[in-house]
Amino acid sequence: MLGWLVLAAVLVGIDQGSKLAAEQLLTAHQPVAVLPSLNLYLTYNTGAAFSFLSDAGGWQRWLFALLSIGVSIFIVLWLRRIPSEQKWLPCALTLVLGGALGNLIDRIFRANGGVVDFIDVYYGTWHWPAFNVADSAISIGAVMLAWSAIRGDGAKDGL
Fold it and tell me: Is 135 one of the catalytic residues?
């Protein structure tokens, strides 16, 4: 289990480092074109995914922080129960854990409780909501968990 926790910590470091770089190098709400359909775009999300509850007045910061803490504890306890030969499930859980902790740090330690988002993917005039490395890890981990559940092998390993 220690290896998975180290991987989660590395993921948190990459997430926080990329957010620090975004804040140092970008101006808020000023897109920087990187590739066709990809901009760097610094913004702060005080809500959840897709800015859910972002205009709720501030209480949501602590609700989402508590949810992140609860999910993180649950994942660590779950990781402890998974046999060491399994790789798929702990990898998925580690991605969710690292992402949750990365965004939790923003919620707790940033003055406005906003999570730093800076990746803007778009097509034409349609833009996906801005996101970050932690969001990507959570999404990939969730897809891996869903795949495992669909296959019915939540307790087993494999693709």
Answer: yes
Strand 115-123, strand 126-127: pairing = antiparallel
**Residue 55 bears catalytic tag:** no
What phi, psi does 129 have (nearest 5°)?
-55, 140
Query: What is the C-alpha separation between 57 and 62, in angstroms, rounded?
Result: 11
Catalytic residue among 15, 106, 120, 135: 135
Q: Cβ contacts of residue 47 below 8 Å, gap of 6+?
A: 53, 54, 55, 56, 60, 64
Over the chain (159 residues), what is each successive 10-residue block's mean pLDDT? 95 99 97 97 80 60 89 97 92 98 94 90 96 98 93 58
pTM higher than the cut 0.85 = yes
- Please pick, among 15, 106, 117, 120, the residue that the annotation labels catalytic: 117
